[in-house]
Amino acid sequence: MTSTEELNCSREEQHLLRDDFTLFPGKCAAVRVTLYNDRVVVEKRRASDGQNGRVTPKADTVRLADVIGCECGRARSTYASNNSRLSLTSLTTKKPPNDTAAAFLCLHSYPYNKPAASGGFRRKRDVIFRVNKYDTHEQNLEIAQKWRLAILLILRRVTVENEEDISAARLPPARKLLVLVNPASGRRKGVQIFNKQVVPIFRDAELDYDLVVTNKQFQATEMAKTLDPNEWQGIVVVAGDGLVYEVLNGMMMHQDPSSVLKIPIGIIPAGSGNALFAAVMSKTGEQLAKLPPLHAAFLLCKGGHHPIDLVSITTPIRHIHSFLALTWGIIADIDIESERFRWMGKPRFTIGTIIRVLNLRRYHGALSYLPAENQEQYEHLRIPAAKKKVKKRLPRPHSTMDTTSEGLGIPKAHLPRFRSLNADLSKIEAGNGLAFSEEFIMEDDDVGSDDPEATESNPLQANGFIPGPNHPGSSNPSLEPSSQSSYLPPKVTDPLPEGWTTIEGDFVGILLTYMSHIAVDVEVWPRRKFDEGVISIQFMHFPQSRRNMVEFVNAIQTGRHLTLPFTRSLFVKAFRLVPLTKPGILTVDGEVIEYGPVQGEVLSNKPHIIIPTDQFQST
Ligand SMILES: Nc1ncnc2c1ncn2[C@@H]1O[C@H](COP(=O)(O)OP(=O)(O)OP(=O)(O)O)[C@@H](O)[C@H]1O
């Protein structure tokens, strides 16, 4: 062998297994199958080539990233039995050949039909090989089982470098999940979505789960309070963001929050507000608009987990935990006040937004915050994400969801559908719409990028840090933000320490977020990581011109609003908001909380979500 050949040999990628099978169903083509760490390559063999003959150069590749499970079994008996794990009748309508000796190996894969960005979506594709090398079924089954074991080891992220690594002793047991279905979420189709769309995928992945259909509010919180962290490898919420919020708050009431927070939470979207789902899909590059439960279930089967930010929120009467956002002013008003138009369905948000934009409210209040150190490291968050390649006429996620086939049941997102307002608001801007309440809308020339009356004070210095333990005023000691030292005084009425900045003035609205999305189609901070460790604040001073409001409403879906000169954004470790205008609405993760002073900070104790970390860039 020449040195060049030696070099080529050493460069050749090492395969783990290689064997000759036939494809099933179809013409039972003879194929040479090779398993690598990330794929299975299937090469057709020519009939004239014999056992050791050449293979045709054109190969089919099954990416293991698209595979969630692998099964093997005896062909004839499983064909006859409906109870068998591998029922070929469920895999194909084709009847297997009448050979009792053969074994089958089936890869459950869910590849995209075309890229997600071009409107593609995953659909099930079982790849079935018939193993018929030996005269006895036991020998053929042994080969199929070895392949299955190797593939399962890779799917469960066990390092497999060579054939010796393929051992049953190294295979981690299947994950056990607690599935919580809220039958009252969204269009009340949670149970149907789970049974029809999720169960078959979980079965393919051999996931073990216990199912609980909630029958009342806070049942999920009660369950999370006493979870055994060693019993579950994940909690799957088939609902909206509201049930995730309940689970997280229950976990924080657990006697050992740190251990229970390690149980990652997964979401199958079935509610009105599905921001967490949207963030997960967006970060992994998965299809968001088509077949949401299928894509969400696929990711849950792939496993993996990642921390997310959790914010402790204190009001005069309670202490809660939030994973999405706190809103005050225009967004909270549209979200909650449009409830009275719920009978309209999705257009309720359009109407609600028009009403609020036309009658812009002035909210007087004081926003105090402790800026995050090294502000420069968050600067990149202000840049809108690159435009996604989406076909021009591709329906917006929410509209697709609203009209999806039976059982999908993902209606409206929880916050206003800004994109759907484009047409209406442009008309208004051009003066064709409803009459404006001029009292509250100023012309552009009158409007600066900041409220001239707003006062900003920065008493400097110290780091604003209050050593913990903290929050003695909390009515429930188990809600304490674990052992973390707090930047906040115990009570929301206590004076703030030094080092804080306060902006007092008139606002159109203030949005405090710790997730990239606040609704399926509202990506407020497209570049935000799940565990950025800071609270992103965005606000607009009052007054604002009609043109500014239209521009803001149009821009917020894509993050372009971050660059608008009349909005301001901040990155903070802790905040206190004191609304002075009454009445008003405050929401936390889409739920209304008591109106009044509220403060919060990011916790170092972070919950986890189920997300295949190898499928997205966490930094
Ligand atoms: N069986 C039940 N009946 C009524 N409410 C329930 C039930 N189970 C859970 N809930 C409550 O439903 C609320 C909303 O849940 P979820 O977020 O899943 O749905 P949603 O449709 O997005 O919510 P929203 O009504 O806020 O739009 C949660 O606060 C939860 O406590």
UniProtKB/TrEMBL annotation:
<dbReference type="InterPro" id="IPR001206">
    <property type="entry name" value="Diacylglycerol_kinase_cat_dom"/>
</dbReference>
<feature type="region of interest" description="Disordered">
    <location>
        <begin position="389"/>
        <end position="408"/>
    </location>
</feature>
<feature type="compositionally biased region" description="Low complexity">
    <location>
        <begin position="467"/>
        <end position="490"/>
    </location>
</feature>
<feature type="compositionally biased region" description="Acidic residues">
    <location>
        <begin position="445"/>
        <end position="454"/>
    </location>
</feature>
<feature type="region of interest" description="Disordered">
    <location>
        <begin position="445"/>
        <end position="493"/>
    </location>
</feature>
<dbReference type="GO" id="GO:0016020">
    <property type="term" value="C:membrane"/>
</dbReference>
<dbReference type="InterPro" id="IPR016064">
    <property type="entry name" value="NAD/diacylglycerol_kinase_sf"/>
</dbReference>
<dbReference type="GO" id="GO:0005737">
    <property type="term" value="C:cytoplasm"/>
</dbReference>
<dbReference type="InterPro" id="IPR050187">
    <property type="entry name" value="Lipid_Phosphate_FormReg"/>
</dbReference>
<dbReference type="Pfam" id="PF00781">
    <property type="entry name" value="DAGK_cat"/>
</dbReference>
<feature type="domain" description="DAGKc">
    <location>
        <begin position="172"/>
        <end position="317"/>
    </location>
</feature>
<dbReference type="InterPro" id="IPR017438">
    <property type="entry name" value="ATP-NAD_kinase_N"/>
</dbReference>
<dbReference type="GO" id="GO:0001727">
    <property type="term" value="F:lipid kinase activity"/>
</dbReference>
<protein>
    <recommendedName>
        <fullName>DAGKc domain-containing protein</fullName>
    </recommendedName>
</protein>
<dbReference type="GO" id="GO:0046512">
    <property type="term" value="P:sphingosine biosynthetic process"/>
</dbReference>
